[in-house]
Amino acid sequence: MVGDIWHDVFLWKDRVHVGRRYQIILEVDDILDEIIEDAPLTAFDLLFDNGRDDVHLARSAASWLRQRTMSSSAKRAFSTGILGRVARLRFRRLVSQHCPDLHFDDSDFRIVEGVETDFVLQASEKSKHILNESSKLLPIFGELSAIAEAGGVSLGADLADGGEQGIRPTPTFDRGLPRRFADFRTLGDALEYAARGRRGLNFHDSRGTLSRVYYYSELYSDAVAAARRMISEGIRPSDRVAIIAETGPNYAALFFGAVLAGALPTPLPLPTSFGGRESYIDQIMAQMENCSPSLFLFPDELDDLGRSAAERRGCKAYAFEEFQTIPAIECELPITKPTDACYLQYSSGSTRLPQGILVTHEALLSNLKAHGLGLELKQSDRCISWLPWYHDLGLVGCLLSPIANQVSVDFLRTEDFARRPLAWLDLITRNQGTSISYSPTFGYEICSRRISSQVDVSERFDLARWRIAGNGADMIRPDVMQSFTNALQPAGFKSSAFLPSYGLAEATLVVTLMPPGEGIKVELVEEERLSGTTRDISRPARYRAIVNCGKPVRDMEVEIRGENDETKGDHQIGKVWCRGPSVMHSYFRNSDATAACLVDGWLSTGDMGYMADGYVFIVGRAKDMIIINGKNHWPQDIEWAVEQLPGFNHGDIAAFAVETENGEEAPAVLVHCRVSDPAERVKLREQIMAKVRSVTGMSCVVELVPPRTLPRTSTGKLSRAKAKKLYLSGELEPYILAA
């Protein structure tokens, strides 16, 4: 909005001090930039000269405006620059009323000229020292915060042309900071550059209401303080700092604090609903045993779990808020090289125990640059995400990439998305710029199911500006994407916004991307080609839709290889290998696993696929393949077929191979059963057996299990390997059915 004034104040209080920092950011809107783009800098100097009193400043502004050819609303908007003086006077007046022994004059404040039309009014070192030492400000802490948090409401909302009142998000546009596509030496350098601008992170509650604005400048300041606290606690370069990855400012500051301290932040997952307390502790203990952290940090609400895990491991541990009470000693931060390790990322562990992946600064930034260029980032772009920060797509794609490429982000916690998935679409609707937002297939599926009950989606949602609807982190299902498009088209969603991709943590994040605007493209492939067998001409041909995952990103190579490492040609299925500067250095403390997948700089991804005209098509995970009588069967084909029966959702079925009583292998299918009548259960089992027989051509073992008992990874994906292990060990007990 023309004349929109953004105000923010950063005031902290703890046991020692209050008002550590007081800052008001005044920003004249980008629309106004265009109106007065030819204004000489001397004019701004005149209007915001620190030596003039408020009356003189107002007269200077009026005189200057009379010389301009501007609309009345633009003149009115530009004149709001004097609000900096108003804010200063109000702050001084409020303090003097409650603390008459504290005195402020103009020398206690300075106006710092920022880029273009940005101006920062902040307390001088003298003022900050007075505030730090004064406990008398405690009673008016809330009032001081309200000066800025009320923003344009209390300091001139009448000058703004509408807009919501109260807390304001970080801006989408920032013409004053030239975009750099992650061309930095280190991740710390990337954050320092982003901190020079106005963008940042925005956190929303379970209903999608903005609850916390976190400018990159504030994140950088907090990260420096966190780094100094870590150093005071004995953290040294290359030490591991394990952090429970809760979506919020605390984790962001601690992650970057560890980076600036030269340590390796190691994100650990939050508890999920798929296991109990002991199961969760066992999970993070496996990761902590591998990484041997020198420090363990966790959210306050997980205090009991965190301290139990720390006690078992025998490492120093703090809750987030407790850690902030540690003095941040003044010290020089270590100098980091691009070849140094940046962080330790654990795989989701869907087929094995989680592996720690060492990612260097140069590998990370190479991938982030490729990501930003591949998305063709624009000044109008804004990221919206609900993905967890312990997963590579959430951490790298939706936190580190926006910072390194200077993009503002709106976050919804993963658990809040699970409860109210349509809040995700609400956030995208409210974005006045163009949106970039990623989700695995199941996220789109959940939304399309919820939307079916909406009377008129066009009244609630406006998705016409959703430029990139990314899809990754799991197999992409064209049928789900089509259902989502059908449900959201009335709200302006375009199927061309879909952007399929392929990647893995071992390559930092992204390996391939579809060019923006091309949408989802599929090829229909005969099942015999997928299974590597000769077609039975007596049966009708069956096809599976394989999604085009795009071309390799900048500096990345992809090859398809056969069993003897020979390179395959177009449309020949084989193992997917990739090579590039963002491929991992190694698995942490696992040289055998590293040697098994890294050969001459090439990474064996563990996936099967093929290439065509430079595009990559992913068929499935090699380890998940079910091989029976020499014929290959993909478990997702069986699972998707069963899902077509009424009453099943994505994730309700797990397929794998088992050995039968006669020593032969057969496909086994575990299915969540929500039917209570014994006769109906028997009928359901027969329907499933018939469905699987139509896909595989053979009989299968079908077991009905209680809802929500099939295991999942920390990112919510079905774990077939663990389901098989639990089933064979008897830990996963199916319902007993009549013969």
Structural summary, described in words:
By secondary structure, this protein is α/β, with parallel strands linked by helices. Among the domains are: 1-168, no CATH class; 216-360, Rossmann fold (3-Layer(aba) Sandwich); 625-729, 2-Layer Sandwich (GMP Synthetase, Chain A, domain 3), CATH 3.30.300.30. It is built from 25 helices and 31 strands. α9 (216-232) crosses α10 (249-260). It starts with 22 loop residues before the first strand and ends in a 10-residue tail after the last helix. 46% of the residues are buried. This is Acyl-CoA synthetase. One of its GO terms (biological process) is fatty acid biosynthetic process. Residues 216-588 form the AMP-dependent synthetase/ligase domain. InterPro entries: AMP-bd_C_sf, AMP-dep_synth/lig_dom, ANL_N_sf.
Mean pLDDT across residues: 76
Percent of residues in beta strands: 15-25%
Number of strands: 31
Major beta sheet summary = 9 strands, mixed
**Structural class by helix and strand composition:** alpha/beta
Query: How would you write the strand order of the largest sheet?
Result: 5-4-13-12-14-15-16-17-20
Q: Please give the radius of gyration in angstroms.
A: 29 Å
Shape: globular
Helix content: 25-40%
Unreliable spans are 1-87, 106-165
Number of H/I helices: 25
Distance between the termini: 70 Å
Describe the structure concisely for a colleague.
The protein has 739 residues and is an alpha/beta fold. It contains 25 helices and 31 strands.
